[in-house]
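Re: the 351-residue chain
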Amino acid sequence: MYTRKLEEKISHIVSKGKASFGSFSEVSPRLDIKGMRSPYAGVPLPAFISNLRIKSRIFYTFSFDENIGMVDFFDFKAFGLTEVIVWDKKTGKKCVYHNIMPPRRRFVPTNTADGSCTCFRKSRFTRIHWKNNHQKFRVDISLKGDKVRPNLFAKIRSSEITSSMMFVAPAPTSSRCTASWFSTMKITGRMDTHDSTLSNAQEMTGLACQSLSRAYYKFHTNQTWALGIGNLKGKDVIFHMLHSNLDAADENNYNHNELIIDGETTLLPPVVITTPFGISKTWVIQDTENMVDLTFTPLSLQSRTLNIIIMRTEYSSIYGTFDGVLLDKNGEKLVLKNFPGLVYKNRIRTL
C-alpha cells in the first residue's frame, strides 16, 4: 500500500536558498517561500522580480446540514480577488459575491500563528481570521445583495481543530516550490439574509477546512482541486486532492493530497482528475495505487473569466456529489454515495 513519510515540524520552509520538502505534522511559524536561489531556469534574477511570481491563496470551505459554501481570497500582488459562494444542498441554488481589492502591502499574511485576511469594502465585507496557537478560526461575512441575490450575513467559529498539516513540494523541480497549510475543524455558525446582527438566526453545527497556499507560478498555470466534506455513517470525513502543472516531478513523495476521518489523517497518492465529457458532466478522479477511485457529478456550476491588464484567469467553482471508493491507511474501504463536495478548476495567465 502507498505510504509517504510524515516529517516533524520545521522552523523555516526556505533556508540558504533551498526548501525543505515533505509532508509535515505541524505548520511552520511562517508560510513563506521567498529566498529560493535562481528559481527560474537558473537565471540569477533580482529577488524582487522572483518574488513577484509568488502567488498566494486562502480557500475556506464550510458545510452545514442545508448549505455548503466557500470563501476564496487570491493575492495577485498588484491587486486581490475575493469570492464568496453559498449553495443550497437540496436545490443546488447558489448565491455568488465577487470583489476586486485595490493594491495593498499584503493580502494574504505569512504568519500562521495569528493572522487575518480581509476585504474591507462595506458592501462586500469578508474576513478570515485565525489564532493557530489558540486553535481558533473564524469567518465573518456581511454582503449586500441586489436584484438577483439576497443580502448575506454569517458568523462561523471553530469549535474543535481536528487536523493541521503542512505540505511543501517542488514546483515541479527543486528550484521552485509550493507550500500549503491545510486545517480541518468542527464549526458552529449562524447565517441570515435579513438581520446583520444574526440575533434570530438558528445556530448550526458542521465541518470546515481552510487551505492557505503559496507557490512560484508559471506564466500559464492550470490547477484543479477536488474536496469532499461531510458526515458518513457517523464519521466526519474530509478529503482534499490537487492536480496541476505545478505538481512535483516526483509526485509519489511530494504532493498535497490527504484524507481525514474523525481527525485521523491518511496521506494519499498523486491523482489524475479528468473531464472526459466536459466540466458540466461526470468527472473522474483516480490514482495508480487503488486508493482513490471516484466520480464527481456536478449539480451547480459557477464560471467566470477575468481580464485585468497583465492577468487573465478563467475559473469554475462546482458543487456536486462524489461516488466511489477511498482506501485509508489501515486498508479499510470508505464507500461514498452522493457525498457532498466541491471541485474548483482554474487557468491563470500572468506576467
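Residues 47-52 form the longest helix (6 residues).
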